[in-house]
Amino acid sequence: MIRTVYIYGSPVLRKVAQNITPDYPELDKLIDDMYETMSNSDGIGLAAPQIGLSIRLFVVDGTPLAEDDPTLKDFKKVFINAQIVERFGEKTIYNEGCLSLPGLHEDVERESKIRIRYVDQNFKEHEEEYEGMAARIIQHEYDHLDGILFTDRVSPIRKQLLRSKLNAIAKGKFSASYKCKIGK
Q1: Residue 18 sits in a domain of what CATH number?
Q2: Is 98 annotated in some ligand binding site?
């Protein structure tokens, strides 16, 4: 089932999400819904707060980028109760977008490598390192779990210049090809 994507201005996007337990209701269905919603919206990542749930869960699927970056060929994962334990490597800049900020893209600087601890869909524990675009995708989605949007990571000058665009999005003045809502 395709879920509604919550847009900038929705309070749920600014909350710190809560860990979940293996008995979270209909978790497998939720994960399937998140993948379907992400795919339908042409996204490569989706965090639970973006569909109105303040829980520490996000899904990623980098395979649409595999033609340009072969390391993403099989990069399709579920991250539950994730904690980035280390960010390292050189800082790189990439033009990011977000389903919760339709039509907005900005250059964001992030570390090129991360180490993350999480549990998968079966609540099996993992600690893994990622680099390059995979690390960037994870960091972007992980930020949603802490109530951070990519626009929070742009320079102070860019933030000032974005203010009117962000206010317009929060007032519903945007165009998106997927189900959206402001609220919750």
Answers
A1: 3.90.45.10
A2: yes
